[in-house]
């Protein structure tokens, strides 16, 4: 269990909250670049960390992320006209540039100084790896641009998707580092999903249903190792990376692409589940790209306008009891992504962690909470910069590796944990 | 699922609006143009305001002064404002309006003319004052109660 005050500390991310302040120290994914596909395209509403914002791309291709509402009478600028290097409110024509600076108030005399006195809150918005990232913290603490490997490999090597998840961000994260559920919830899909199947290591997943876990602190977060019996008395290790606060990378399978998630708070009851898919040394194949777009692997098919999964709580996640009974899916829900999301959403917007009965295999979750609490308090009390901001913490990889029983994975696989250009992932 | 506009205009979503200030204080100069309006502006000057200053040009073309008695250059004062509010009473001599208006026009400063106490005044008196203000006011307001100006200045974040 987790004390209520600690759960509150970690789950509340609005302005002024300690966890919200911590999130505001990182570059976080805000939109897919495809949401602002061309200059002067329609603006997009964005809610992040309980703040309502509007993203737009001006006539010169500059990105802006500004307060959603016009400073004049408080109407939504989503109705605005994106033209001539600014967003013009449809109500009375006030116009703003990408920095949120008001540049025209038509009711004022031409050349009036008044517009200079009006400025909407804004945050930087940059494109990297097909994602628009924002930094919502104090300008003086703005870190260097993110260097996650999936976002810095050539464009042909990477693709990302996002989907709405209707629960608190921490529930998503805790599912992502909870390796012990894979042998149950996802077991039916390992040998069929195009982004997982035919990896030699899959046999060990399916033959040893009682993995042993080892959780080891890493510079940026945790290595979460799951150990299963392999051939010849060796161990098959699958080591997940978690980087504080919300990044995970799932261990690879064969030469399949690597993948993982970010969970980004929209507000305290909703988050975006970001899912990336990339290969460090080769372009993604057409089959892989198609699989991602069809919601295979860790992705989910979503409404292209709202990014809400097509299987969602309003249709019982398209639950298929016959398939569940026949063993085609363990839970009756299709797809890794929605199998996870359906259960995490079923816990409610913010699960009551005071009622949990955790077991030793939940140590990844326990340790992650512990490290988050330390980081949040250190930032709030002493101004200590949290882990995960340092770009060396971002250049990481997960690994799948077979090791002799006497070798600790942290030492034996240490090179595998580092993202190195043109070096293939360590995978089985 | 409701449309995005339906969801985002709900009471629940209103609490996620950004609360930070979206403007810096405007320099608002409130200028009495005649003796009757001087009393109203004097009353206003005694109240605390963020960024408003109060002057009297009732003696125009004699000296313009603030309400501590300091003389002021009317052209400079008008030209350095973000907004000038000219206060006049019906039948009063609003001679300073043209000087203020020209200064504001040259510096692209917004002007508002306010005629207070219009109700008991004759139509002729109101018309006379309006004709003096109209050429120099981008916004013209005719108000009966003289405390309307308090609400107006508050609304303008004065």
Descriptive overview:
The complex is a heterodimer of chains A (428) and B (158). Chain A is globular. With 428 residues, chain A is an alpha+beta fold. Chain A has helices at 4-11, 18-23, 149-152, 169-176, 182-185, 202-207, 286-293, 321-326, 336-346, 363-382, 391-394, 409-412, and strands at residues 27-32, 44-48, 51-57, 63-67, 81-82, 87-88, 95-96, 102-104, 122-123, 125-128, 131-135, 158-165, 212-217, 221-229, 235-243, 247-250, 258-267, 270-278, 399-403. The mean pLDDT of chain A is 96. The two termini of chain A are 35 Å apart. In chain A, the strands form four sheets. In chain A, strands 12, 13, 14, 15, 16, 17, 18 and 19 form an eight-stranded antiparallel sheet that branches. Chain B is of the alpha/beta class and 158 residues long. Helices cover 36% and strands 21% of the residues of chain B. Chain B contains seven helices and seven strands. A seven-stranded mixed sheet of chain B has the order 4-3-2-1-5-6-7, sandwiched between helices. Chain B is elongated and about 65 Å long. The model of chain B has no long low-confidence stretch (mean pLDDT 93). Chain A binds chain B through residues 15, 45, 47, 50-53, 67-69, 71, 74, 76, 78, 108-114, 117-121, 267, 306, 308, 314, and chain B through 1, 4-5, 8-9, 13, 16-20, 22-26, 82-83, 104-105, 108-110, 138.
Q: Helical proportion of chain B?
A: 25-40%
Rg of chain B, rounded, reads 19 Å
Helical fraction of chain A: 10-25%
Distance N to C terminus of chain A: 35 Å
Major beta sheet of chain A, specifics?
8 strands, antiparallel
Helix segment tally of chain A: 12
Globally, the shape of chain A reads globular
The parts of chain B where pLDDT drops under 50 for at least 5 residues are none
| Beta-strand share of residues of chain B | 15-25%
Order of helices and strands of chain B: HHEHEEEHEHEHEH
Output the structural class of chain B: alpha/beta
Instruction: Give Rg of chain A in angstroms.
Output: 22 Å
Report strand % of chain A: 15-25%
DSSP summary: helix tally of chain B: 7
């Amino acid at each position: 269990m987790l004390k209520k005050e600690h759960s509150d500390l970690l789950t509340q991310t609005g302005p002024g909250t300690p966890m919200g302040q911590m999130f505001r120290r990182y570059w976080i994914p805000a939109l897919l670049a495809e949401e602002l596909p061309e200059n002067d395209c329609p603006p997009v509403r964005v809610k992040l960390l309980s703040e309502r914002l509007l993203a737009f791309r001006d006539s010169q291709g500059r990105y802006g992320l500004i307060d959603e509402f016009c400073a004049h009478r408080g109407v939504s600028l989503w109705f605005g006209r994106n033209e001539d290097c600014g967003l013009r409110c449809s109500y009375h024509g006030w116009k703003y540039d990408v920095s949120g600076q008001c540049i025209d108030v038509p009711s004022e005399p031409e050349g009036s100084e008044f517009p200079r006195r009006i400025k909407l809150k804004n945050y930087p918005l940059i494109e990297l790896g097909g994602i628009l990232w924002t930094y919502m913290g104090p300008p003086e603490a703005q870190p260097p641009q993110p260097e996650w490997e999936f976002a810095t490999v050539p464009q042909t090597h990477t693709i990302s998707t996002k989907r709405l998840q209707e629960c608190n961000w921490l529930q998503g994260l805790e599912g992502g580092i909870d390796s012990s559920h894979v042998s149950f919830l996802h077991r039916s899909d390992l040998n069929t999903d195009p982004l997982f199947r035919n990896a030699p290591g899959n046999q060990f997943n399916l033959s040893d249903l009682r993995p042993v876990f080892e959780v080891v602190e890493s510079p940026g977060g945790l290595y979460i190792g799951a150990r299963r019996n392999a051939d010849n008395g060796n161990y098959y290790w699958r080591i997940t990376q978690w980087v504080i606060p919300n990044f995970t990378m799932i261990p690879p399978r064969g030469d399949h692409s690597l993948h993982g998630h970010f969970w980004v708070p929209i507000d305290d009851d909703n988050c975006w589940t970001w899912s990336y898919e990339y290969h460090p040394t080769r372009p993604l194949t057409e089959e892989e790209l198609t699989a991602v777009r069809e919601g295979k692997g860790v992705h989910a098919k979503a409404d292209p306008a709202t990014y809400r999964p097509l299987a969602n709580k309003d249709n019982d996640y398209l639950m298929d009891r016959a398939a569940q009974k026949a063993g085609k899916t363990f839970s009756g829900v299709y797809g890794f992504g929605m199998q996870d999301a359906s259960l995490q959403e079923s816990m409610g917007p913010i699960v009551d962690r005071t009622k949990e009965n955790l077991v030793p295999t939940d140590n990844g979750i326990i340790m992650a909470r512990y490290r988050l609490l330390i980081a949040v308090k250190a930032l709030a009390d002493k101004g200590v910069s949290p882990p995960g901001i340092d770009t060396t913490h971002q250049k990481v990889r997960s690994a799948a590796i077979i090791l002799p029983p006497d070798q600790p994975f942290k030492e034996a696989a240490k090179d595998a944990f580092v993202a190195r250009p043109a070096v293939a992932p360590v995978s089985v | 699922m409701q449309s995005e506009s339906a969801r985002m205009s709900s009471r629940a979503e209103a609490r996620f609006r950004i609360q930070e200030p979206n403007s810096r204080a405007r320099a608002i100069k409130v200028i009495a143009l005649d003796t009757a309006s001087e009393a109203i502006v004097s009353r206003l000057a005694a109240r605390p305001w963020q960024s408003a200053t109060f002057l009297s040009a009732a003696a125009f073309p004699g000296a313009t002064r603030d309400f501590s008695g300091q003389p002021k250059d009317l052209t400079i004062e008008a030209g350095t404002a973000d907004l000038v509010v000219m206060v006049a009473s019906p039948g009063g001599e609003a001679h300073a309006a043209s000087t203020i208006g020209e200064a504001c026009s040259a510096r692209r400063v917004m002007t508002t003319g306010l005629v207070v106490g219009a109700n008991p005044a004759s139509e002729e008196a109101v018309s006379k004052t309006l004709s003096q203000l109209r050429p120099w006011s981008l916004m013209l307001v005719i108000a009966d109660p003289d405390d309307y100006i308090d609400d107006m200045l508050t609304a303008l974040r004065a």
